[in-house]
Each structure stands twice: as structure tokens, then as C-alpha cells.
Amino acid sequence: MRFATDYVRYVIKGGPKFYAWMGALSLLILGMLYVFYLQNTDGLIVTGMTSQIHDGLYLANLVFLVGVAAGAVTIVFPAYVYHHEGMHKVTVLGEMLAISAVIMVMFFVFAHMGRPDRLWHMVPPFGIYSFSLDAGLGRAGAQRLPHPQRRGRLLVPLQPIHRQAGEPEDLHAAGLRVDRVGAVHPHRHGLPAGHQPGAADVVPQHDAHPLHRHGVCGRAGADHHRLPHHPQATRGSGSRTAPSSCWRPSSPGAWASRSSSPCRRSSSSSMRAPSTPMACTT
Amino acid sequence: MGYALNIRKCIGCRRCVKACVEENNQSRGERPGERIEWIQVLRMERGKFDADKVNQGGYPEGLGIQVGGNSYTPAGQVLEGQYFYEPEKVPEADATYMPIACMQCEKPPCVKVCPVRTTYREADGPVVIDYNWCIGCKMCMNACPYWARRFNLTTPVLPKKDMNPVTHYLGNRPRMRGVVEKCHWCLQRTRHGRYPACVEVCPVGARKFGNLLDPESEVSMVLKRKNVFRLKAELNTFPKFFYFYD
Q: Which residue of A has its CA nearest to B170?
């Protein structure tokens, strides 16, 4: 406590020249704060940067100040190892310079960010490396987990996007019965379509299965992007044109050997029925 | 997923660029930082064989260096200002074209450097970005050797009537200010069994898209039968974007 008061008194002590200098610097800081405000309302476009030239003065200053800090730190070695008298006098000053340069470097990086409001995404206990995230997976991996495992691993739950009318919950609410397990809508757990295990990780095939042109595309409801009550486009034997979203892999072994194959995913998560036997014979 | 592009066939009409902008809700602005195009079509000088220069070395005399004739003018140079060329008519006689976009590397440098791991490689191929988690540090733009990533320097200019309502969380949903975006092979289309917009719109059929795991797919056929190369293969990024020629 004594040290703190002494320190503050030492810092704010000075003559009129000192106060004038500090006042000028404060004005500069105020101007910079205003520009920072502009930058975070209009965007980094006020700096004149583009997508091609995306490192401006900020990162130039970063490199320069890192050099300054490194140079200031190197004073320590001749002073304390070789007992250089002259160096001893400037060592403390050099250390102060290094510390302030490093602090300025961090400010420059902060000002360079596109979304400074999301800085906490980098802070380990809350953002990345969070204990609630699956270690080694990151948020990207946690999003890919099936729902029961995923719950609790994301501190910030995903919003239910892409939610559409006609989902199974809506049908339940309307007193309807969903009789086909395969008709479970992929978006019902609030996962984006790409993260729905088993449903959307499959690469489309345009010229895929020989049965494709006969309108056969797996079990009923295998097309997850169709609403449950949607009429099947493949009804009837006279239909020679397959729907555009109807595809099946041509070589089942290739799919079954993949780590993200629908067969394995559905066996690990009970919320999905087994996939089409056409693709899962192995 | 895999992609193949026939550089012999490309005529530089840049229809793929426009289709991509419309499909993927990119920012259409007037200011340089507001205008975002994921595909770049590079206009390159076409080399030429000149029989008159067979016996002329390009080097000055008297330096003790003997150089034979160089009959070729160097080809494949991208000159300044040719990223955004505005030709009256394509293809131009003295130019070849090299479209580039995200190569969807197997070992993406952008994924390695992301400090919040918001960009990652999906199981079926494309490297995607969770725009809600991106902090806009632009490390990935520095890391990418292919100039594939774009930055939303300001709130994207996307008029309501021009927006494509068919979106994907990791793909073409409208982005916010201050995040990075890039080509994702039109996930909203390809995951539903359609071609990417650039493949559909290409008037000469230079662009091919398909499943690399399927030996019957178009891309697999191209890899089997054509002369194929990848950009900057020495960097060991293993792109899934292949260039070929007949």
C-alpha cells in the first residue's frame, strides 16, 4: 500500500512542462479513441485497407515496436553478465521501454482486429481451450457432436437457425403423429444443416447410382431436406426423372469406409434410424 | 468433394465471378473494401515463339556470359492491374486466363493459424468458417498462399432484393462486419446434390465438380485421364482444386 501511494505520487509529480506534455499526449489518445470508435462503427474500411492489402500501419507498427522491445531487452545482458558500467545506467530505462512497447504492440493488434468485441473468444477459460469444450476439438468439433454429447460443451449454445414450419415438434404440437423415423428433420436440434450428424456430411452424387434414373433413391424419407408431409417425387413406376436432390453413392464400400459415413453416425447416435440399406451393406 | 478446372477452355468471361457474388450474398459495394469477389480470374500474358530471336541472347556483351537465343517471350505473367480487367470481348487474343478461388486444401494453412479455431475442414472436404465465432484477426488471410480469403471491412452491402434466401450456416448466409469469408463450394447447393453456381454458369464447361471418392465422378475421371496440376504444390497444402488441360 505504501509502495502504491509512493508510486502514484512519483508518477504524477512534475513541473509545468511535464503536465503540458502529458496533456498533449492525452489529447492524442482522445483522438485515437475517437478514430477507434469510427473504426468499430463503420468498420476497418476507414483505414483504407482492402481484402488484398489487409495489413496496414497497425501491423507495421507491431513489427517496429517488437524490434524496439527486443532491442531494449538486449541491454540487460551486457549490463548484468559483463558488468558494463554504462549499460547499468540505462538498463531500467530499457526495461521500461520494452514493457511499454509490448503493451503498445498488444494495443495495435487489438485495433487491427475486425471484431474486438469478440476478443473473449481467444481467452482460454471462456473461449477456446475452455474446459467445457471438447479438448482438441474446439468449437468446430463440438458443433459436430450429436446432440446429447454436445449439450454442455458449448458455453454459448447455437441458436436454432434454419428452423422451419412443419418440423416434427410442430406436428406433435398440432396433434399429429410422426410415423416415419426417417423423416426427422435435420434442423430440429438447432444445429445448422452442415453439422447434423449423418445427414449432411455426405457428398452429393450427380451421376450416382444405377437405380437413380429409375427414381429409386433409398428408403422413404431419406431425403432429409424434404418436409415430412411433402409428397415423394419418386412416386409411381412411370417416373423416369429423379428429383435433383435424390442421390446415392455408387460404391457403398467407399462410403462405409469413411469416418463420417451415415451408417456409423447413425449407429452411434440413437436419434436416427439406420440409414438406407443400399448404402450400408458393409 | 473435388473441383477441376480446364484452363484451356476458360475464356475469361468472368460469369463465374458474377454468379458467385449473386449466389453467395457477397458484398456489392462501390468502395474498394466493400466489393468482395471470391473468384479471381487472372489475365495472363500469352507467350510467343519468335524465330528471329533464335540467335540473340538477351545479355549484354563483354561480361563473359554466353547465353543462347531465347525464342520465347515469357508466358504466364500477371501484370499489374490485370486482376480486374474489363475486356470488350473475350477471349482476347494475347491473353490466357487463370481463375483462382479457395483451393479447399487438405492441409489448410489457414486452419493451422486460426487462434479461435473458427475455420476448419469439414469431413466432406471444404474448409469452412463459423462467422459467429470469427474475431477478424486476419491471420488466415496472411497464411493463405492462394489469396482466397476476403475480409468484410465494413457492413456488407447487400440489398434486400438481391439476397439469395437459400443459405447455409457455414456458407452463404449474410456475413457481418469484420469477419473473414471465402469460397465454400456452395455448401447450400452441393450438400443438396446440386452443382456450385460457378460450375452451373460456366458457358464453356471449363469447371467440373464432383466426388473424389467416387471413381465414376467427373472429377475422378479428369484426374485419371487428363494432365492435372495443382497450384503451389510445393507448399504441401494438398489442394482439392485441380487444373487440367486437354
A: A194
